[in-house]
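hey so i finally got around to running the thing on that chain from the lab meeting. sorry it took forever, my laptop kept dying and i had to restart like 3 times. anyway pasting the input first so we r on the same page abt which one it is
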Amino acid sequence: MKERVTIKIPKELYERIQKVIEGTGYSSVTEFIVYVLRDLLSEEGLYKHPDHLEELTEEEIERIKKRLRTLGYLD
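ok and heres what got predicted. didnt touch it at all, straight out
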């Protein structure tokens, strides 16, 4: 099994995501969030298959942070 970490999000957001994924192919909020984050990183050209991960540059990290702020995930 892959090592995992805990990420905290507002309960209201969690509950909204639960409603959004009802009746979809997602088995959990976690599965959906992982999909969305991978997709986001992929759009930015920053996600590679875990077997091919490379260190991110400072510029790439800043682009990710900026995008997450825009989406409301970071203050």
